[in-house]
Design goal:
single chain; mainly alpha; Fumarase C, Chain A, domain 2; Ribonucleotide Reductase Protein R1, domain 1; 3 domains; two-stranded parallel ribbon; 19 helices; 5% strand; elongated; binds arginine; lyase
Length: 458
């Protein structure tokens, strides 16, 4: 028996039933559906559309259903299409025809928009907490590794020496923006859709503000057609999630590179690696590889929902049921990725000797030499040319800049004096870059301190 069966003479085709049902995946919204229904029914009584007795009967029926679902005693039926109808039908079976009053002044179109918003608000809060967990690990690791210098890269060519902590804090900064994007997305998710009805509101004198207060929404939507046709909040969340995954993916890529024998910069704990079925020596960085890989599916979900929405006339269309699986999958993919990344990073160690040897190799201090000449009055362009020649000389002679004798330096410019050796020391090179946002120890420590305090505030 369908809740909308009145208009129909023939039974729904079995395949159509299976094809149109969303109960297989929207059952995870049960908690929000019930929470929304309870708030709705309280409002109906408050607005004198239902009696207090009817309200109480409906609420206790819904509470029983909640318990049954949580105890795995509820049987979801595909013939009842979705979570909304499964619960409503069960309510009527339980408490009789008074259960049929629950859907007064409501449509599944505003109901599903409500459930999705309640769900996403919770998920955003969970994900924000996970981001902070990862940020905390980043700060701890930055503090722990504060004295380790590493090569910084552009074009994946050694460029200038930086501090490992500085590199870690680069990701911290990216995560901070990800966090902000979620706060922003939350603001637009935090708007009550209920009351928009199927598309044109309701003739009942309902109190939408009351429902908003009950459910913790800080605004009420202002156009019923927009409300039931809007999935911007899902799109925004998926865009923020894609950006976050992109960041984790880049970091993962670096961990994969750094753990290779070619780089050999870090050690990822055995607990986060796996072996090979054939090559006994292998220790593979599967976790960062998989995080990098799963980024693709999150991008896919963003493209999917954008594409679903692009051709839809107002207001609700069944196409919009396709908003769910991608969102649910994104939420679990994202949560898994952040959680694992935090745990893995906490157990990742940096190989100081290798990192510093590498930072000293590859002329990462060449800019320092040019700056040295500039300090002695040589225009930067000329200095660049002189140092370029000096480097070429070293490449041919298979020497480092620090191997050059003062006599050799003087062949390139008579401005070079004994103090050049101090200038090109990589520790000096890093610590004299003490501008705001630079890699100098003092500056990095300042950022760690400020961010620790920020994290504590939340
Ligand atoms: N299962 C539907 C969805 O997820 C609920 C809304 C259905 N509304 C309707 N008029 N068929 O979108």
């Amino acid at each position: 028996m369908k809740l909308w069966g009145g208009r129909f003479e023939a039974e729904t085709d079995q395949l159509v039933e299976e094809y149109t049902a969303s109960i297989g995946f929207d059952q995870r919204l049960y908690k929000y559906d019930i929470e929304g229904s309870i708030a709705h029914v309280k409002m109906l009584a408050h607005s004198e559309i239902l009696t207090l007795d009817e309200r109480d009967k409906i609420i206790s029926g819904l509470e029983e259903i909640l318990e049954e679902i949580e105890n795995d005693e509820f049987e979801f039926e595909i013939g009842l299409e979705d979570i909304h109808m499964n619960i409503e039908k069960k309510l009527i079976d339980k408490i009789g025809s008074v259960g049929g009053k629950l859907h007064t002044a409501r449509s599944r179109n505003d109901q599903v928009a409500l459930d999705m918003r309640l769900y996403l608000k919770d998920q955003i809060n969970d994900i924000k907490a996970l981001i902070q967990k990862l940020q905390k690990v980043l700060l701890e690791s930055a503090e722990e590794n504060i004295d380790i210098i590493m090569p910084g890269y552009t074009h994946l060519q050694r460029a200038q020496p930086v501090r490992v902590s500085h590199h870690l804090l680069a990701y911290y900064a990216k995560l901070k923006r990800d966090y902000d994007r979620l706060i922003d997305c939350y603001k637009r998710t935090n708007v009550l859709p209920l009351g928009a009805g199927a598309l044109a509101g309701t003739t009942f004198n309902i109190d939408r503000e009351f429902v908003a207060d009950e459910l913790g929404f800080n605004k009420v939507s202002q156009n019923s057609l927009d409300t039931v046709s809007d999935r911007d909040f899902v799109i925004e969340f998926l865009a923020a999630a894609s950006t976050l995954m992109m960041h984790l993916s880049r970091f993962s890529e670096e961990l994969v590179l750094w753990t290779s024998q070619e780089f050999d910069f870090i050690n990822i704990d055995d607990a986060f690696c796996t072996g090979s079925s054939i090559m006994p020596q292998k220790k593979n960085p599967d976790v960062p590889e998989l995080i990098r890989g799963k980024t693709g599916r999150v991008y896919g979900h963003l493209m999917q929902i954008l594409t679903v929405m692009k051709g839809l006339p107002l207001a609700y269309n069944k196409d919009m049921q396709e908003d769910k699986e991608g969102l649910f999958d994104t939420v679990s993919t994202l949560k898994g990725a952040i959680e694992l990344f935090a745990r893995m990073l906490a157990k990742t160690t940096f190989k100081q000797q290798k990192l510093e040897e590498t930072a000293e190799d590859g002329f990462t201090n060449a800019t320092e030499v040019a700056d040295y000449l500039v300090e002695k009055g040589v225009p930067f362009r000329e200095a660049h040319e002189v140092v370029g020649k000096t480097v070429l000389h070293c490449v041919k002679e298979e020497k480092k800049l620090s191997d050059l004798k003062l006599k050799e330096w003087k062949e390139f410019s008579n401005k070079f004096e004994d103090d050049i050796y101090k200038k090109i020391d990589i520790k000096t090179a890093v610590d004299t870059r003490n501008i705001i946002g630079g890699p100098a120890k003092k500056e990095v420590l300042r950022v760690i301190k400020t961010e620790k305090e920020e994290l504590k505030k939340d």
